[in-house]
Model the fold of this input.
Amino acid sequence: MRGDGDGWVVSEDGAHYWGRHGAAGLLLRAPGTDGTAVVLLQHRAPWSHQGGTWGLPGGARDSHETPEQAAVREAHEEAGLAADQVTVRISVVTAEVGSDGSATHWTYTTVIADAPTPLDTVPNRESSELRWVPEDEVVALPLHPGFAASWPRLREVTATIPVFR
Done:
């Protein structure tokens, strides 16, 4: 089902950003077998924008959605996760283009959430694979450029939040 947020925003310098009302992704954490955090990553399908890279389940926000609602909806669509399986902890704007109120204002919000255990996932056609990855091993993967740019800041934020209790 297509939402009213599907579509590209073109910045003043000609760069394209997916999501007419911005975009959001879910950084879902769970305790690994050794008690340290693992995160759910999506290996993007080859046909998709930046295909072949690893990032977060996420996508365009619809006009009626908060970033949290959009991220949880996208995680359901792309990974088969139900909203009641995750606990949203905090949201961080990890990319912003244009000034607030301008025609090209666009944001990407990363919603950090926890699950009690690494949940079973069901990938949709946008994913080549879904994988629970230890936080310390994320940078070893070929990351989506936007996610790679935001990962150091996200690690700083997650360091202040204990993994699901």
About this structure: Residues 50 and 144 are 6 Å apart (CA to CA). The mean pLDDT is 89.
